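Amino Acid Chain and Its Fold in Token Form
===========================================
Purpose: to set a sequence beside its fold so the mapping can be learned.
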Amino acid sequence: MWSEEVNMCPSHGLLAPYEGSSVRSSMWSEEVNMCPSHGLLAPYEGSSVRSSMWSEEVNTCPSHGLLAPYEGSSVRSSMWSEEVNMCPSHGLLAPYEGSSVRSSMWSEEVNMCPSHGLLAPYEGSSVRSSMWSEEVNMCPSHGLLAPSEGSSVRSSMWPEEVNMCPLTASSLPMKGPQ
């Protein structure tokens, strides 16, 4: 359910920003810390983006009160664990590079979801999800192609930067760091 590269929850499509990640989520971004429910941009250290609805210091969503973690911030989201990248909905721990935390529910090598059995592709892994095209990041539900690094495939329905499915507004995992 989670990818080592992008920390994506395949059920909810939420990406967890984490230090050193070059992956951008259309719902949560390392750069802009977006509220997945409201799409509001949260200010973060060094960001020129400022939302009047967000507290500059704590990145609080005024509607949900959720805190968005960001690099250099002492504030941590109540929905995400700083160390273990916990799925706020399922409570499953996702192993990630450099983490000493391992969930007994997750395979260290393949990041398999014990409930759904889906494999999350990640950098250096020979395991690929049967639901995703290795090269073009195809949406398994709609068959739309998402642009990926080195891919010559471009869909007019897809934004190049965020790989968002326009029909479901779900984020797709990207092949390699973007």
User: Anything to note?
Assistant: The chain is about 0% helix and 0% strand. Confidence is low (pLDDT under 50) at residues 1-169, 172-178.
